[in-house]
Structures are given as structure tokens and as C-alpha cells.
Amino acid sequence: MTDRKRLSSLADIAGSASRPGYEPGRHGRGIVHLGVGAFHRAHQADYTDAALAARGGDWRVVGVSLRGHDVADALNPQNGLYTLIERDAAGARARVIGSVERVIAASREPAALMQALVDPATRIVSMTVTEKAYGIDRARMTVALNHSAVAADLAKPAQPSGVLGVLTEALKRRRASGTAPFTVLCCDNLPDNGAFVRAGVIDFARRSDPALADWIAADVAFPSSMVDRITPAATQRTLDDAQQMTGCVDHAAIETEPFRQWVIEDRFPGGRPAWETGGALFVDDVRPYETMKLRMLNGSHSMLAYAGFLTGRRYVRDTVGPAGFRPLVMRHLSTAASTLRPLPGIELDAYAADILARFANPAIAHETRQISMDGTEKLPQRLLAPAVELLAKSADTEPIAFAVAAWMRYCLGRLDDGTAYALNDPRETDIAKAISGVRSPSDLARALHALPGLFPDRLRSDPKWLDAVSSRLGRMMTDGMEAAVASELAH
């Protein structure tokens, strides 16, 4: 047990951690955030902290836990203060964040949640709740009626507990009272996330109140945003380091990498914090930036994950370290960048260098096995779309072909020594059926190319592409994955 004081005010801080550049209590709230987990506290709350220090304003955050109460129990006794630790090869640095006012545990305080949402001071409702929590059918862009929270909230719309129900009821009450709507800002890592949430909210509203749905469609802003920052789960080391660097016990401390990125569509009728002072980039269209991230960061992530996992490299950092295959990652980044058009505010070479530095960060234990999961959901945007574009302009597709071949080798479900593993892919059964009894690399490549709805026609029918994939897959299957990586490095 420790006799140190619990962090609850800036005056408590006695260590090396830096303090907010403002007095939190002098700033009112303006944001309600649904899903106040570690990522939000390392990302949006961090940017808001920087904005308050630079420009002030009543923009502090009321966080909401829609299900549990652990975060509320950790943060509320600390008056919303917590330690954010950044780790890299140079060590660890800590800052105390003051942008969170308090946290509502919605399961315990449903009335407090709705009160915060309808408060005229609330001008932005943001969220990080994961795609599954919304209950939106992406293919149809309508609510998923079999989603438990959606079904419950449609049955009792005045007592909502799910994301769509909560947003819709709050907007309904604001409309009825003549209060301007808040801006809905999705910060989940989803493509075109503003349009995604907008479609779900409007469809949810239309099922009980068509006039409300029309009002939402006309008057409520749903800007898209792109977020990026690796935030591992806090450990006892996190808490111990926070105590050492603040001189206080901090039950809400979190850790993260130094890199962070936030690209936001600039549509905030009710105003917004000066997030750009913390490095956020405001643009007219987020989609090209999402494409950049998918092809460069995520595409190279997938390549090194399959090659890394199949060669016994447990963590991403092992793939770009001294015993890794850094040149292959650099080659993939360069190829992916060649498919992109120039983007305002982004230097692609610098972005690639940032990605390599992030992958090499020894303080981040990101497992290749984890990244390898759900390949059929990731390949189309990360690898297959850029491959089609490269073929169309007769450019080099070999780096992408290597990545796709590595995924196909992963689909066999066994390491070179015969050790079996689960693919953890939503189409695992389809994959197993497609490759059952297939022996030759070329037949295996064709069988996986033939999976319905996965590979574009251009790739399935291009002999040069098929040969590039099949030849690499053959080397992986015959000589082993380590030899295939070595051959690619020498190519």
C-alpha cells in the first residue's frame, strides 16, 4: 500500500510530469464524448487539452461510459485529471491532462447522460465506441434490427441505452425545446465515418418520427474524421510510472506512442475547439487521407504482419529491427505512396518515415498475430485496390504481390514446422473450403482469387499479376517463409 495522495488537483503534482497550460476549473464544458476509454484519453482529450492551453474556450469534455463504470470510478475522484505517458526508444515522458471535466456512468445515471446531451452548452457529441456498438448495417446503411441495443431502443425510444437511440432521443429533445443541434463527430477508426453514423441516426429516427429524421438530415452536421494513435492497455507499470512522475496515485493513467494524427472535415456549425493548435488537420474531404492511411500504414502493416508472424517475429518492432526486414517495409511504403495524389498538409516521405519509426518503437508491443486477423476484411482497401491501380498504369506490382502471397500462405493455417493456428477471419470456413485438397501454389492462388466478392476481376484475370503472386507463394510453400523473405530482400 502507498501513503501517497490520490491525484485530484494540479497542486498535487510533485514529479516531472508537465501540467496543463491552463486552469481547468476556469473553462466550461462543450463536448460530450461517448466511450471515454484509453484511446479517447490519449487522442481527442489530448488534442482538446492542447486547444484549451492555446486558445481557451468552454470546451472541456464530459465523458460517458455507456456500459461499465470503471472509468468513472477512476476519473471522478481525480476531478477528471489523469496522466498521459508517451513511450519510445528515448524513454518515457508524462503530462497531466485537464480537459475531462467528469465521467457519467450511463448505466447508473441515465438521467445525467440525457441532461448533458440536451444542455445548450453541449455543442459537440463525439464518440469512440467501435463499429459493433452502433448497430448499423454498412452494406445497406440502415439500422441493424437484430442488434440488441437497436431493438431495445426502438421499442422504448424515450429510455435509450445504445448509441443511435441516445443520439436520436437527445436531438429530439433539443428540437422540441428549440435548442440548436449539436455536431455529431465520430472518432472511430471507420471509413467515411461521418456518413456512416449519419445514415444510422436518420434511419433510426425515421422509424418512429419521420419529421425528426428530416430535421436531422437538414440541420445536423456529421463531419468525418480520421484518427491514429497506438494506445496499449494500461499495466501496473503504467500506474507505477505515473506515480513516480506525478508524485500521486493515479488510477486513470494511460500510455501511448508519441505519434498522433487527426484529420477532420471542417463542419462545426456550433463552433469547435482550436484542435489545429495541437496538430489536427482540418480539410474539406477526409477520404483521400483515409486512403493514404489504408494503403501506406495499414497496407505495410498487413504485409509485415503475415511475413513476420510466419517467420516467428512476434512483434511489429521485430520486423523492422536489426533481425527484421526493414527494406521490404520501405519498399511497400514507397509503392503504396506511388498510388496516391498529393494531399494538402501531408508530406508522404515524412509520413513514411513516421510509420517506420512507429513500427520500430521498442516500447510498443504490437503483435503480428493480432494484425494478421480478419484478412478478408482488410485486403480489399489495403492491398487489392492499389494493385488494380498499379496494373492500370503498368507500374510495378511485385511488392503488393508479395504481401498478397504472404496472406495466402497464412491461409494454410500452419507454420513451416507444421504447427497449426486459427486464421481468426470471418470467412475462415469459405477459405478452408476453397483450398481443400489444393496442392500446387498456382492452384492455391487461383482458388483464393476465386473467393466471391474479394478479389477484383482485373486481378483474377491478369496473367502477370497471377504469376507474380503464384511464384512468391510457391517459394514460401517450398523453401519456407524465411527463405522467401530473404529472396525478396535480394530481389
TrEMBL record:
- Identify the domain of life: Bacteria
Transmembrane intervals: none
GO function term, MF aspect, one: oxidoreductase activity, acting on the CH-OH group of donors, NAD or NADP as acceptor
Mannitol dehydrogenase N-terminal domain segment(s): 30-276
Q: Which residues form the signal peptide?
A: none
A GO BP entry is: mannitol metabolic process
Domain named Mannitol dehydrogenase C-terminal: residues: 285-436
The answer on whether this UniProt entry bears the keyword NAD reads: yes
The UniProt keywords, alphabetically, are: NAD, Oxidoreductase
Q: Does the keyword NAD apply?
A: yes
Any one Pfam family match given in the protein's UniProt record, by short name: Mannitol_dh_C
In terms of InterPro entries, this protein maps to: 6-PGluconate_DH-like_C_sf, 6PGD_dom2, Mannitol_DH, Mannitol_DH/Oxidoreductase, Mannitol_DH_C, Mannitol_DH_CS, Mannitol_DH_N, NAD(P)-bd_dom_sf
- UniProt-listed PROSITE patterns: MANNITOL_DHGENASE
Q: What is this protein called?
A: Mannitol dehydrogenase family protein
